[in-house]
Amino acid sequence: MPMGLSAELPYPALNGIEKDEESVRILAPAYAAKEGELTATLQYIYQSFIFCSLSMAEYAKTLQAIAVAEMHHLDLLGRMILKMGAYPIYSACPPIPFNFYCASAVSYSVSPQKMIMDDIRAETEAIRCYERIAGRLKNEQAAAVISRIILDERLHLDAFKRILGELVAPNCPEN
After folding, report:
1. Which among 23, 70, 86, 116 could disulfide-bond with 40, CB atoms 3.0 to 4.6 Å apart, if both were Cys?
2. Count H helices, E strands: the chain?
3. Cα(157)–Cα(66) distance, rounded to whole angstroms?
4. Against a cut of 0.90, is the pTM above it?
C-alpha cells in the first residue's frame, strides 16, 4: 500500500502564488471548513481505527493512505494561503480568527457501510467544491494545484465505491 493514495502526477510548484486576499477567501473552505481537508483527514483516520477494530485491516490501510493524501492537500492549501498573505489558521475564513474549526463535522459512524457512504458523499462534494474553486481562481498556478488535487479526490471516490461494492456484495442474493 502506498503512503498516500494519489495520482501518479507531480503537484504543480507553488511558484507564482503571491498575496491575494480574494483567493484566500476562495480557498479557505477547502482548507478548514466543515467539508474541507482537515475534516477529511480526521474522518479517515478515525474510520481506519474502526475498520482495524473490526478486523478489516485492508480497509483500514486504504483509509490511512487516503488520509495521508488529504494531509498533503491540507499542507498545499495551507502553504498557498500563507503565500497569499494570510496565516493558515484552522478557521473557515482566515485570516479572521473566528469560526474556528470544530471536529463535529467528522462522521463518527461505526457501521462500515455507513462510513463508506459518508465518505462517498464527502469526496463527491469535495470534487464539486474544488471544481468551483478552480473556476473562480484568477491565479493560474493556484488553479493548477487545485486541478491536480481533484485527480486525487477522484481516485479516493473510486476507492470508496470499490469498498462499498465489496461490503454490499456478500449481502446480494446472487452470492
Report:
1. 70
2. 5, 0
3. 10
4. yes
